[in-house]
Amino acid sequence: GDSVTQMEGPVTLSEEAFLTINCTYTATGYPSLFWYVQYPGEGLQLLLKATKADDKGSNKGFEATYRKETTSFHLEKGSVQVSDSAVYFCALSHNTDKLIFGTGTRLQVFP
Amino acid sequence: GAVVSQHPSWVICKSGTSVKIECRSLDFQATTMFWYRQFPKQSLMLMATSNEGSKATYEQGVEKDKFLINHASLTLSTLTVTSAHPEDSSFYICSARDRMRGHNEQFFGPGTRLTVL
To answer: Which of B28, A22, B38, B98 shows the shortest CA–CA distance to B106?
Structure first.
């Protein structure tokens, strides 16, 4: 079945450091790929998405590129802030209702 | 736009009682709502998919009689945890799909933390 694998956290960074959170997937066909963010005490929010190979999703300084050849959708940000501290979830979905999530990666950014 | 609310945000109940959680789409019509469960430090696990006016579709391993789902209108779905036990303690999250948007756009509620004593 389809699945999403994320790097284990927590990821601990100093403010203004470069961030990469790895995400790889296993799926048939061409799923859409997502990154969701969950801030402390809040619900999930869609951060960015990509619907086809080589698409780059971007939002709030975060980027991720849909790499079909490596089945990856790594999340990157050039300079993190303390306010980026949250749990990040990679997810995939075909043209159905079902979102399949990775286990989440906690990011902690210190000043 | 595309706001989803949940009520209550947290609830504590005694073992054996039933608890109802509401999920509302505030500014759009949601033909489909989803219920997830999240354990500490783990991912969201889809419990069931709820379509307005029809029976919910449950994921494998989820007890239908334990987790009753009703989706009576385009803006409201409810999850009732019946005869709750401590192992039902978890964070329950709903999401809703906006019928005017694409298939894959789900908007999430803030979640409800259930603690069963």
So the answer is: B98
Q: Which residue has the tokens 């947290």?
A: B10
Encode pLDDT of A1-44 as tens digits.
889 999 888 999 999 999 999 999 999 888 999 999 999 877 78
Are A17 and A77 within 8 A, CB to CB?
no
Q: Give the nearest partner residue to B34 out of A32, A46, A97, using CB atoms.
A: A97
The DSSP call for residue A79 is S
Helix (H, G, I), strand (E, B) or coil at B90: strand
Task: Please choose, from the candidates B112, B88, B79, B111, the residue with its C-alpha nearest in 3D space to the C-alpha of residue B16.
Answer: B88
B32, B44, B107 member nearest A97 (Cβ) = B32
Contacts of B4 in chain A (CB under 8 A): 43
